[in-house]
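In this section we walk through a basic example: taking a raw amino acid sequence and producing a predicted 3D structure, encoded as discrete structure tokens. The instruction is simple. Fold the sequence below.
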Amino acid sequence: MGHQDQNFQLFDQCRVCIVCSKDLSLDTAQQLASTLEDNGGDPVVYQSPADFPDLAQFSHIMSTTIDFSEFDAANDALIPVVKPQWMQASLSKRKLANPRQYSPDPRLFLNDVVVTCGDIPEGDKDAIIGGVLAKGGLYNPRVTQMCTHLVDLTISSDKAQLVRERNLPVKIVLPHWFDDCLKLGRRIDERPYMLPDPEILQAAPDRPVRSTENRDIIGASTPEPSTLPTPMTSPVKRLNVFHGKIVMLSSDLGIGSHLQKTITSLIKEGGGDVTSEVSKATTLICRYREGFAYRMASRLNKDVGNLSWLYHLMTYNTWTSPYRRLLHYPVPRTPIPGFEKYKISLSNYVGEARAYLENLISATGAECTKTLRQQNTHLVTAHDSSEKCAAARDWGLEVVNHLWLEECYAKWKKLPITDPRYTHFPRRTNLGEVVGQTRLDRSSLEALFFPSEETPEAPAVPRKAMQHKDQNTAATKALKTTEADDTTVSDTTNATPRAGKSRKSTLQTPARSRLAPDDRENETPSSTSSRKSKEAATARLHEIAPDIALYEKEKKRVGGVIYGGRRVTDEDRVILNGNKKRPSMEAQTESDEDDTAEAKRQKKSKPPITIHLLITGYQRWVGNMKKEDADKRQLRDLGIMVVQDARRCSHLAAPSVLRTPKFVNALAYSPVIVQVEYIEQCLKTNELLDPSDFLLNDKDAEKRFGMTLEQSKINAKKNKNKLLQGYHVYCAETIRGGFDAFKSIVDANGGECNLFRGRVSYQSKREESDDESDYDGHSNRGEIYLLSSVATEHQKLWPRFRQLVHNMGKTPRIVRVDWLLDMAMSQELRDAAEYELNEEMVEQSEE
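The resulting token sequence is shown next.
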């Protein structure tokens, strides 16, 4: 009894707020709350989007993440934020555990590590334990189920043998892993360090380093997104991230009235509201770190983020701090002092990580170059075993990892590259895997961009930028319209569109004095130079005013403005400033004196886009990004824009009839389908050839799939993306091909698709619609489908699926994925009975 009393008293001084999140469900939170109550605690469960209770009443906040709105305020109030394991550890020790060891803060990057040590020297053991404890991890002297890592030098040690015999989920790593993590200040992948065959000891020096896709920066790789996002929440779960929020959309976003209305309606549908007064707002969305609204909202601790952050909230329907990802926060107009003279090149970063770093370089005010030359000042690389790194060192350039770039941006100052963290490259690791983990430093932001009114001396940089903006408001507004309509930004993650983006920034941000690359080389960051470049920028704005007027005029004609208006060869082309000579394409030669003007002329002479081309199954570009980049540029110069989204394509190129997601999705939009030979011939002849001479002909595949491309196209035109309207399809989580692929196919054809995780929620659009005629009397009204295979893990789901669907008064249909693929490819409905799966069929096939 005394033991129970002692336990009961354990949390009697604790009032704990338990924060629900995607990793901490309401059920789990209530279980935690009842354990706390049983032991004398006073818990409160908080679930978004309700208003957060008053922080002052709590002694602890329990959460698996720091992504909740009151985290910064809790930190300021010195209220510890702990993971649920804190409670278990406290109970097992019979005393309150140290909250720091259980913090969910990712800056304590080893907070998920529980380490035990094998046969390693005593000095190494002490250093590793000290490092792990300092960075949020825990040490256990014995091997237990709780351990995540065993540090050892050999697989034959007693502890290693114990791990293998008991088949424990413990990673056996060399001490080098901790050493590299602590040197970088980031948690890197353990795989190259894992026994029995650690890659760092086995791999040949010239063997390429594996690159890994980074999930952390998806939706956070640019401060200026070009398209509205697609929410990842299911159609039945409404957007609620804006519940109770009052959002102010700043005028400096430069978005059109149509997009503004769309964003406003999404916020209102999600339970929020929109205001134009900063005093009423809880959240400010703006583009630059300047102006009254920005400073006021920041000083009052309101959420301040940019359009990219707003879109991220819409996509994931989960609140996240705008400080968490560097490019989710408004950007400054001026460079980091000293960065304006830097020319930075990237190496060994791929995909979204590369796009993110290119945009980050532009945001610092430095120049991002596609190729490495001796004129460069820095090479930012993910590992240092490449020819580019060797060349950079030969030329005396600074070779650093991306941490230097991220931390300079976060603190908004030039940090010395003598810090060993910035020049450390673990042997078999591509540092692209830890891109995007640096957070903004709020104290630096406050000191530089929104100092409190009492501060006697505000920093000059942001103020100057603000004054400069006021001088050019009208011209900037006119220029923003051109940004909104510029079609040079494609939706690929390759390097080409980014170049277009940095060219635009010469117009958007004249205060950066980026007029021509040659001028920047000779600039010094002195106030005289800054003033001169501002004057030059203003003059440049006056000079291009006639072009802005022409743009407005051209915008009204049929077809709108594409790439700066009419081509040089157009007969009815409007000519402004007759005394200006506008040479034809043939007469244009490279000029050393005016590279920028030349680039603009060439850009204006690009033909309009006549083909939006989606490509699938094309092998020529695989593993050769440089060739892909050059070919796409050449195709664009011919009037062909390569797109990634089936919704945007007018033409589809493929080697044969395929069942890839791109091919199947595109069929719903009835594109012209050509052989990939068409791409090669256009590139070879450097001409825009007639697609009808290269139509795809693949009778064998058509026969195999029971469809014809011609009939599919006719059907798709009739269907208008509504083939599966009213259909509700579920998908087994481990389905071959992946849930995302099947969801995209169902979406493209107007149906609803969700993962099946043991729950069914049914709310078809047709039940909300008064117009039943849209549904053509589909026989599926009472049916719900599950895409499955005969794999044992899928069969286990079947009884639960049937039970749930029957409980709703609907008919369950468990079908092979071919049912969906055959319908999407033929653009005709198919009877599900031909594709149905059941236990009897499985038993027969096994016999």
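Looking at the output, two observations stand out. DSSP finds 33 helices and 24 strands in the chain. The CA atoms of residues 482 and 826 lie 41 Å apart. In the next section we compare this with other chains.
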